Amino acid sequence: MPGFNEPYFCVTLSVMNDVAPEQNYWKKCSTCKKEIPFEAKYFLCSVSTCRHERTGYRFCSVGCWDAHLGYANHRSAFAEEMNAPSRDSTFTGNADLSRQPIKKIVPSVSVPMPTVKSATSRLPATDTLGVVSKIKQFIREQSGFNTSECCIEALTKKTVEECLKGIERAKVAGRKTVMGRDIL
């Protein structure tokens, strides 16, 4: 670890592109951190908050773009295919700012919901999956009603069914992470 008396190095970055002169790539993918080479294809999200320079989201593939949808909560989005600038234009400041994006509409993966019969036929035995006191408190605050034990059991069963459906949808989509869109 450098001490206080040792010199430190400053890297001068191009103000326009934040690319160091010795850097051999244009940017890194916002999801997988893979390097995006100069003059290579990359993808931008169509939503304005994602494509803003301040956010700087750039994706090396449609798969990486799709992965950011799990936390971005876009209603309707697609990936736009773009080309990274050349190395020369990056450092001379002559990047072609008039480039029009090539729109590539990427529909959401529409995965058919598993039938309730297939999900319920293999329901594992589970404990209560909700905080009973919070459920009872919510029902009482919303309606003034009491909550029976069979209500809690029904909610647990429904939660297990929805989780199993979400697992199936994530498998079909080729992911190992169950996301909110798999449940809804």
Can you give a write-up of this model?
The protein is an alpha+beta fold and 184 residues long. It folds into 2 domains: 27-103, no CATH class; 116-183, no CATH class. Helices cover 35% and strands 9% of the residues. It has 8 helices and 5 strands. The strands form 2 sheets. The chain has a 3-stranded antiparallel β-sheet. The longest helix has 24 residues, at 149-172.
Quick tags:
184 residues; alpha+beta; 2 domains; three-stranded antiparallel beta sheet; two-stranded antiparallel sheet; 8 helices; 5 strands; 35% helix; elongated; disordered N terminus
Summarize the structure in short.
The protein has 184 residues and is an alpha+beta fold. It folds into two domains: 27-103, no CATH class; 116-183, no CATH class. It has helices spanning 48-51, 62-67, 69-72, 87-92, 116-120, 132-143, 149-172, 180-183; strands at residues 27-28, 35-36, 41-45, 79-83, 102-104.
